[in-house]
Amino acid sequence: MAATPSQAAPGPHQLPGSSPGWLAHAHRVGTPAANAAVNARVYLAPNGGFSALQSFAQSVSTPGSANYGRYLTPAQYHAQFDASPATIAAVKQWLTSAGFKVTGTEAQARYVEISGTVAAAQQAFGASIGTFTHDDITVQAPTGPLSVPGGLASAVLSISGVDTTPEVNAPATTKPSPPPAGFRNGKPCSAAYGDSSSATGPDGTALPKYNGTTLPFAVCGYTGKQLRTAYEAGVHGLTGRGVTVAIVDAYASPTILADANQYAISTGDKAFRRGQFSQNLPASYTHVGSGKHGCTANGWYGEETLDVEAAHAMAPDANVRYYGGKSCSDPDLLAALARVNDEGIATIVSNSWGGVGDVVKPSLFQAYEATFLQAAAEGISYTFSSGDSGDESTNLGTPQTDYPASDPYVTAVGGTSTQITSAGITGETGWQTSKYSLVNGAWSLVAPFQYGGGGGYSSNIPEPAYQTAAGIVSPNGGRAVPDISMDADPTTGMLVGQTQAFPDGGYYDTYRIGGTSLASPLFAGMTALKIQSSGHGLGLLNNLIYTDHSGFTDVTGAGMDAGNIRVDYANGLDPSGGYLYSIRTFNGATTSLKVGAGWDSETGWGSPRSGWVQ
């Protein structure tokens, strides 16, 4: 007998966001052979559905809710939300019947790994596969959205790997030369903001005024103690003791503990106590891609160094636990985030990395969100750097925010240019820099936009309810970024210490560094004090920030100079090769991001003070 409509199996279900975001500007160059290899991950939905996890995470993270603070342990989370054995079996049966081989299932049933052919992928996912060129690479990818059987629509979150475009992230640091290649900032420089200025350089070069004003030399780099004293003025008895701050990056610096201890001691702080710093590392590491589509380990060592030293500076008695990804690819960083959640040791997690734009990883969007929601269900908070390319117009042609910072379930930390003197913070503005170089005795504009803190409005992630309720008007209806901000301008950046490779050997030295990579661990460290004060984890921080942002100082640009003069060694090491002189302006670049009263697209609600902590 023919099936009636009510008896018929539901038709194929298209996965939202599964069509490659770059298709519109790609060029199709062919069709892969039917037996060409396809290796993929099928990410599974939480038991009970994605919306059930969303509701639970919101309820335990919202002050006033009957469930506020009733977080789950990792074991309780997995018992309640892991995909059921029956669901896993059904997904595997569907994949094997199409010709795939199941090569593994993640320990907590987050995904199923498969290997097969183009023919199997086309049969299983209902989309033709082509060969394309885009962004200087050639890839194999679906020509449209992927589908799953209608009966599995609620079981599958997303599918990653059918599009072979490298899914890589980059550190959100802005520095002249990525260590471990040795680098030293030029001198003279200011120990505290504005304490050193001159009409001539160290070699006698005349340094003209800028718009009629003699500008100070850039700081040598604020020490951890200077930053802590400035932001945490008025905080009493809170040092982060009993709280664990997690740092997630790719790879792992082999000298991190020795470097962090030497830095702390040399700048007047305490080294880590025995056992206060720990690591959770993969068994091995991989190198993915090449050029802008790849990543190598040494480019991430400086990022880890900054993150660990900044977090320790702001919360000197907190435990710091580092989680390294086996590469900078999204799947490997997702695996590192999963280790954070499954251990359940940390309650605040700083991430100083991301992709360019928030439309580049649609196949992994819900996999990331499930990770952030698991954390919230366990009382764990996530912060992400908002990026160092302003509104991304220079890179993408149109304004855009970066992901994962633009996810509604994380706190996006933007950047400021910050004047810190012995009196504390005497001026702040949004970090958007123009660069002038000294040419024929005059300052000449060479980069209208050099770099700046990420912000703006997402083009594909809707504005969350907490922003709408706070009265933020998103012009395109998208998630507004950032939520808050802290020092990130490399001109007013932090001094860090790291083992580097110099011409005369490898050894420890210091350099100034900036980027929203600095802002995120600074804020995570301060939030560790708030967690200590609260006595428990806080889950989704934005539920607190957008309800009461009185603990943040509105950043308006008041008290700021126009910029600083930066002295750089031409060879990056010493005066023997001569000097380079430039002016880096404060909020001088013209972008779509602006500072203003209240929340703004450059600095969010502003920068935290003691009111956020206590």
UniProtKB/TrEMBL annotation:
BP-aspect Gene Ontology terms: proteolysis
Cofactors: Ca(2+)
Active-site residues, record numbering mapped to chain: 249 (charge relay system), 293 (charge relay system), 517 (charge relay system)
Keyword Metal-binding: yes
UniProt-listed Gene3D superfamilies: Peptidase S8/S53 domain
Name of the protein in its database record: Serine protease
Organism: Nocardioides baekrokdamisoli
Presence of the UniProt keyword Calcium in the record: yes
Gene Ontology terms, MF aspect: metal ion binding; serine-type endopeptidase activity; tripeptidyl-peptidase activity
UniProt-listed SMART domains: Pro-kuma_activ (SM00944)
Keywords (A to Z) from UniProt: Calcium, Hydrolase, Metal-binding, Protease, Serine protease, Zymogen
Disordered: region residues: 1-24, 165-205
Membrane-spanning intervals of the chain: none
Lineage: Bacteria, Bacillati, Actinomycetota, Actinomycetes, Propionibacteriales
Peptidase S53 domain boundaries: 221-614
Pfam family of the protein (one): Peptidase_S8
